[in-house]
Design a protein that fits this description.
With about 325 residues, the chain is α/β, with parallel strands linked by helices. Helices cover about 40% and strands about 15% of the residues. It is built from 11 helices and 10 strands. The protein has an 8-stranded parallel beta barrel with strand order 3-4-5-6-7-8-9-10, surrounded by 5 helices. Strands 1-2 form a two-stranded antiparallel ribbon. Helix 3 links the parallel strand 5 and strand 6. The longest helix is centred in the C-terminal third of the chain and has 16 residues. The model has no long low-confidence stretch (mean pLDDT about 95).
Length: about 325
C-alpha cells in the first residue's frame, strides 16, 4: 500500500481508503437504515482493509443513522487498532426530526462531534468533514466552530466534502488567522468530477480525496444497456446521485473503456480505479467494497501504471470527447 500526505497538513493516509457508508445502512438514506452490511460483515471488511495496509477509514454521523460510527467504534475497541488508522467522519446531514438536527451551525457541530466521539469510542477524530455546504449558516461561523474543535483537541484537522472550488476559496478566506481546511473530498471518476477542483487543491495546499471512484458501480460494467439493474445494487437502492449517467452515451463509453481494459489484461474496475490513483493531484480514493474479495481486487489498481497520455485518452472516451 502506498501512502500520501493530505496537502500541507502533514497527515499521512493510505492512497486507498475504506468507505464505511454501507455499514448499517446505505449512506444517509433513512429508508435504508438497518440495511447494507451488518456488523460481522463490516468487521471482516475492516480487518481485511487493515491487513492490506489501508489506514484511512471514512464514515459519517448520518450513515446508517449513526450505525456506521457505532460499528467502527466497536471494531476499534475490540481490535485495539486506534493508533493504526486515520479516522474521518462528517457532520451536516439530518440526524433527527427537529429543524435544528442538521446543518453547519456552531451549535450543531459542537453537539454532533461529541455524539460522534461517543459512538466511535475515541478521544479525538483525525479528520472532521463538513458533509456538504449549508447555505443557511455563514461560512465564518462554520469555520470558527471547526477551529474551536481543533484547539480543544477533539479533532486533528477538518475539511470539506461536496464543495465547489469557489466554496473552498471562501472557506480558506474565512479561515484567515485560524486553522485551515486540510482536505476536500468530492466525487471523482472517469465519468464525473471537476478536474479544476483538484488543481485548486494542489495550488492551495489542500489534500484531495476522491469518493465514488467507480461512479457508484457504473465503472464495474455491471450495468448494461437494456437490462434491469442487478438486485441490491446502488442503482436499485439509492440511484439519485447517478441518475444522470443513464444515457446511451454512457453505456457506449463504458463499452469502449472495457475494451481498453481487456487490451491491457485488466478488468474495467481496475482500470477505472487506476485512472483515479495515477492522478498526481489525488491524495487518496475512498472505495466501498462489499466483500473482502472485492477489496483485494481493488488493490490490483495500485500496480497499474498509466502515463499522462494514457489518462487523457481514457478521459476523452469516458467524457464523450472522442
Amino acid at each position: 500500500m502506498r501512502n500520501a500526505t493530505l496537502g500541507s497538513s502533514g497527515v499521512r493516509v493510505s492512497v486507498l481508503g475504506l468507505g464505511c457508508g454501507n455499514f448499517g445502512g446505505v449512506g444517509s438514506a433513512p429508508e435504508l437504515f438497518g440495511r447494507g452490511d451488518d456488523e460481522p460483515a463490516a468487521f471482516t471488511l475492516l480487518d481485511c482493509a487493515v491487513e492490506h495496509g489501508m489506514s484511512l477509514l471514512d464514515t459519517a454521523n448520518s450513515y446508517g443513522g449513526g450505525r456506521s460510527e457505532e460499528i467502527v467504534g466497536r471494531w476499534l475497541r475490540s481490535r485495539g487498532t486506534r493508533d493504526d488508522v486515520v479516522l474521518t467522519t462528517k457532520v451536516r446531514n439530518r440526524v433527527g426530526p427537529r429543524p435544528e438536527d442538521e446543518g453547519l451551525s456552531a451549535r450543531h457541530i459542537t453537539e454532533q462531534v461529541d455524539r460522534s466521539l461517543t459512538r466511535l469510542q475515541v478521544e479525538h477524530i483525525d479528520l472532521y468533514l463538513a458533509h456538504e455546504p449549508d447555505p443557511a449558516t455563514p461560512m465564518e461561523e462554520t469555520i470558527e466552530a471547526f477551529d474551536g474543535l481543533v484547539r480543544a483537541g477533539k479533532i486533528g484537522h477538518y475539511g470539506l466534502s461536496n464543495y465547489s472550488g469557489s466554496q473552498l476559496m471562501n472557506a480558506l478566506a474565512a479561515a484567515a488567522g485560524m486553522s485551515r481546511p486540510a482536505n476536500l473530498q468530492n466525487s471523482y471518476s472517469l465519468l464525473d468530477g471537476d478536474e479544476d477542483d483538484l488543481t485548486n487543491c494542489v495550488n492551495l495546499g489542500v489534500g484531495f480525496t476522491a469518493f465514488s471512484p467507480l461512479a457508484g458501480g457504473w465503472l464495474t460494467g455491471k450495468y448494461r444497456a437494456g437490462e434491469p439493474f442487478p438486485a441490491g445494487s446502488r442503482m436499485t437502492l439509492r440511484p439519485e446521485p447517478y441518475a444522470a449517467l443513464q444515457s446511451p452515451d454512457t453505456f457506449a463509453a463504458i463499452d469502449a473503456l472495457a475494451q481498453h481494459a481487456i487490451a491491457r489484461g485488466l478488468d474495467l474496475a481496475t482500470l477505472a480505479l487506476a485512472w483515479v490513483l495515477t492522478d498526481p493531484r489525488v491524495s487518496a480514493a475512498i472505495v466501498g467494497p462489499r466483500t473482502p474479495a472485492q477489496l483485494v481486487q481493488m488493490l490490483a489498481a495500485l500496480s497499474v501504471t498509466l502515463s499522462p497520455a494514457d489518462r487523457a485518452d481514457l478521459s476523452a472516451i469516458a467524457r464523450h470527447r472522442t
